[in-house]
Structures are given as structure tokens and as C-alpha cells.
Amino acid sequence: MAHTMRTGTYTDPGGGRGDWRDTASRYALLPLRIFLGVTFVYAGLDKLTSSTFLKDTGDESIGDQIRFLQQSGDVAIPQMLDLAANSPVGFGYAIALGELAVGIGTLIGLFARIAALGGALLSLSLWFTMSWSATPYYMGNDLPYLMAWLPLILAGASYWSVDAWLRQRRRGL
After folding, report:
1. CA dihedral in degrees (68, 94, 45, 40; nearest 10)?
2. Would you call 17 helix, strand, or coil by DSSP?
3. What is the pLDDT along the chain (173 residues), one digit of tens a residue?
4. How far is the CA of 55 from the CAs of 31, 89, 94, 114, in angstroms?
5. Which helix (H) or strand (E) holds 23?
6. pLDDT at 3
7. Beta bridge partners of 11
8. Rounded to whole angstroms, how far apart are CA atoms 102 and 117?
9. H or E stretch including 127?
10. Alpha-carbon gap, residue 84 to 67, rounded angstroms
11. So what's the pLDDT on residue 9?
């Protein structure tokens, strides 16, 4: 079977030539980038501005969440919780600031692959701890987030990103 490339006279916003399918495929990851970026910025800010989360004890505090998960014993890697239990407030700040950095990096496309890797690692660690006991497994929300980060790790932020702008500057375009 012979394969041919579609050609046309349409010039897309990305600077190449092609039809609407070419343009759509180039921008296919942009909605995912926006969704994950906004979600992680929101999650980080929500934790940082919460009057209860960044405390050792109390309703909805990170300390009580960690202790509850330790007592339940239903986590994939209990050592992760043991480490977090040494300084729950510091761990809460690390999660919140990590989510904020990942979200901003993803939204603006700065070191996009590294930001996506950070998002995947956050989602993986939350899946191994917070969502591990969800039955059936697809009821936990951290595993789908982990899978959503993978295309951005592989592809980065090709368009409408600081990374793309820097790449063009280096090329002198």
C-alpha cells in the first residue's frame, strides 16, 4: 500500500503547510496541557490557602490524613507515609509547592517535559498512597492523572509555550 502526504494551500498558524487535520494534530495536546496546568495550579493554591490542610492535626489536615492512611495499612508503599509522617506540614508544603510549580510550568510550557515528569511523579506517589485502596482501581483519580501526564512527557509543549519560543530564538527565526 502506498502512502501519500496530503498537501494544500492552507498555511496553518504553526508556520507549516497542511490541511485542518495537520493543524489539529499539532495542537492536540494543548487542551490536555491547559487542563492539567490549571488543575495543578488550583490544587497547589487550594492547599497553600487552606486554613486546615497545612497543619499537623485537625479536620482535613495533612497530618491527620497521613496518620489515617498509616492506620488503615491499605497503601502500596507504606514507607512513603512513614517518611511523610516525620514532618507532615513540611510534606504538605512540598506537595502544594510541587503542584504549583508543575501547573505553572505546564501552562506556560517552560521545561514542559520536566514539569510533566514532576506531575507524573506527584500523581504516582498519590496513587500509591491516597488512591491505592480505591476499588475498583479506576475509581481513584490519581491513576488517570498519571496516564494523562505521559503524552506530555513524550511530546513536551510544541506550541504556545516558552519552550517553543526559546527554540525559535536559538534558531534565529
Report:
1. -90
2. strand
3. 454 444 444 444 555 556 888 888 889 999 999 999 999 999 999 999 999 999 999 999 999 999 999 999 889 999 999 999 999 999 999 999 999 999 999 999 999 999 999 999 999 999 999 899 888 888 889 999 999 999 999 999 888 999 999 998 998 86
4. 35, 6, 13, 29
5. helix 20-26
6. 47
7. 17
8. 9
9. helix 112-129
10. 10
11. 45
Quote the cell numbers at residue 93. Answer: 508544603
CA angle 95–100–101, rounded 5-degree value: 100
In sequence order, what are the residues at sequence separation of 6 or more whose Cβ sits closer than 8 angstroms to the Cβ of residue 2? none
CA pair distance 64, 57, nearest whole angstrom: 6
Contact (Cβ atoms closer than 8 angstroms) between residue 103 and residue 41: yes
Predicted model pTM: 0.83
Amino acid 13: pLDDT: 52
Report, in this order, helix, strand and coil percent for the chain, each rounded to 5.
65, 0, 35
Strands (E), the chain: none
Backbone torsions φ then ψ of 145, nearest 5 degrees: -65, -40
Please choose, from the candidates 41, 54, 57, 151, the residue with its C-alpha nearest in 3D space to the C-alpha of residue 104. Answer: 41
CA 139/CA 142 separation, integer angstroms: 9
